[in-house]
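Homework help board

Subject: predicted structure for assignment chain

Our instructor gave us this sequence and asked us to write out the predicted structure in token form, then describe one feature. I got the tokens but I'm not sure how to describe them. Can anyone check?
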Amino acid sequence: MPREACLRCAAIVKSRTWWRHRGMIRDVGLTKNDTGTAQLNTLVERAGYLAVLPLVLCLAAVGLLPDYAWQELAQRAALAWGAVLLTAAAAVHWGLALAGQLPSTRARIAAVFAAALAGAAGVVVGGQRGLALLVVAHGGFWLYEKHALGELLPATHLALRRQVTFATCMLLALTMFVSDTAGLS
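My token output:
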């Protein structure tokens, strides 16, 4: 086999298996529609990440404060802030529909209201069950965004939402586990 043919075969094989050689850590941010490669305005991106800071503080308070009443207050604050984040994510879709940027079908409007109701239900249920409900609701709304609206939403929005949703779900779940250890319901 001539050298040129070998190089051509190697290029074809390499193009088909490029994903195997890139490393798992670098591929975490990439998805089918390449939302991980989109760049955001750094101020907007930082504000998005700062939105989960209250959840970090609530987690630390539930785990580190010595008084049961303060731990319970921190748990309730985590519930409230998780509901606020979920409702804010749904409000973005509501605003896009009102502005005519996102087609408003009954299913989309129902999804927006379902997210807001799930946030409210998490606060009403309270405790560890409320935290679990918010984790499921955040994850479910992200899946809805990605699969039902992935082609209609900007890649930068999906990239930021994916990372903020992951952080939110992890922090709410950790708060739930720490609440259990602290003896909170």
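Reply (TA_rk): Your tokens look well-formed. For the description, you could write something like this. Residues 40 and 157 are 8 Å apart (CA to CA). That's the kind of observation they're looking for.
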